[in-house]
Amino acid sequence: MQVTLKVYRYNPEKDKKPHYDTFTLEADPTERVLDLMERIKGLQDGTLTFRRSCAHGICGSDAMRINGMNRLACKTLVQDVGKKITVEPILGLPVIKDMIVDMEPFFESYRSVMPYFINNDPPPNGERLQSPEERERFDDTTKCILCAACTTSCPSFWANGKYVGPSAIVNAHRFIFDSRDQAAKERLEILAGQFGVYRCRTIFNCTLACPRDIQITKAIGEVKEAIATGKLD
Amino acid sequence: MPLKRNVSFWEGLKYKGGGPMWAWILHRLSGLGILLFVGLHVLAAFLTAQFGSDAGIAINVVYESWAFQIIVYFSILFHAINGLRVIVLDFWPALLEYEREAIWAEWSVIVPIFGLATYIIITKALGG
């Protein structure tokens, strides 16, 4: 089938404003949008710029707006988005070139919630044991690949870039509800702040955008509940 | 030089968040609608009582018109029911897995109540 790909372009060395280029190419319905972009870069326009690494939905490099919604280009099939495809960078972060955005503000928010294991007890001889139920408690939020699809789909984040965003909250949730971790209180204090969880308006864009199907709004709700009740059940 | 944060009101509005995002936008718009109605109500009462002004009566005519009443009624009904949905989901986060079903349930309450009231308002307005 013949596919038309309308691509957002911005070259800081040439362009004052972004514009769109349109490419026409033959594609199989089961090809991915990333395959089409690779083909355009290889055969039609080598200046087309985008991030990609594993190309299998694990590294989270190629999050972009495809037909108006955040998705991973490597997990989006042509048959799922139709013959006319528009590809744009994710919203709310500064565009460096074409599809590439400056991810630093996103990672700054991520770092602010201490997304690492904290336990000041002396390490045991073996592993730090945990029951299957305790592990299950935060299983969903371990799946995050930091692609930023959720944070950049969030109207609260669009309105104010200081909001830590869904992704940082998901990664805080992963440790807050881990029975082996000891810094839940500190993380909850950070997230109870001015730019923390209460910026969430339960809009649900994040959950719909997540390529890993994480129940993000639910995780944010659980963090809100933990802040309100002081309980981690 | 990278562009500044690439988001504007229209860019955001074009994002395809679907039903849940439109429920949120409508919640904001209906809130503004209620504010407009209450504002007009207070302004009309103030102008009439304080100055005996005809402007107050003119404003009354606008917000008491049946078309305006339908908009106000929708704003209040939607804002209340949607607000209840958000409150329920915020209190019981486990239910957030059923967000889409919650929106369907919300509309299944709004549509018949709004439809019935609109029918009554219009038939009374046209029937005299």
Folded structure, characterized:
The complex is a heterodimer of chains A (233) and B (128). Chain A is an alpha+beta fold. Chain A folds into two domains: 2-101, Ubiquitin-like (UB roll) (Roll), CATH 3.10.20.30; 104-229, Fumarate Reductase Iron-sulfur Protein, Chain B, domain 2 (Orthogonal Bundle). Chain A has nine helices and seven strands, in the order E-E-H-E-E-H-E-E-E-H-H-H-H-H-H-H. Chain A has helices at 33-44, 78-81, 104-112, 132-136, 155-159, 165-176, 184-191, 205-209, 216-229, and strands spanning 2-9, 19-26, 63-66, 69-72, 84-88, 95-97, 100-101. In chain A, a hairpin with a 2-residue loop joins strand 6 and strand 7 (100-101). Chain B is mostly helical and 128 residues long. Chain B has one domain (19-127): 3 helical TM bundles of succinate and fumarate reductases (Up-down Bundle), CATH 1.20.1300. The longest helix of chain B is centred in the first third of the chain and has 33 residues, at 19-51. Classes of the chains: A alpha+beta (233), B mainly alpha (128). The interface between A and B is medium-sized, with 35 and 25 residues.
**How far apart are the termini of chain B?**
66 Å
- As laid out across the biggest beta sheet of chain A, the strand order is 2-1-5-3-4
| CATH top-level class of the largest domain in chain A | Mainly Alpha
Query: What profile does the largest beta sheet of chain B have?
Result: none
For this structure, what is the CATH homologous superfamily of the largest domain in chain A? Answer: Alpha-helical ferredoxin
Would you give the CATH topology of chain B? 3 helical TM bundles of succinate and fumarate reductases
Unreliably modeled segments of chain A:
none
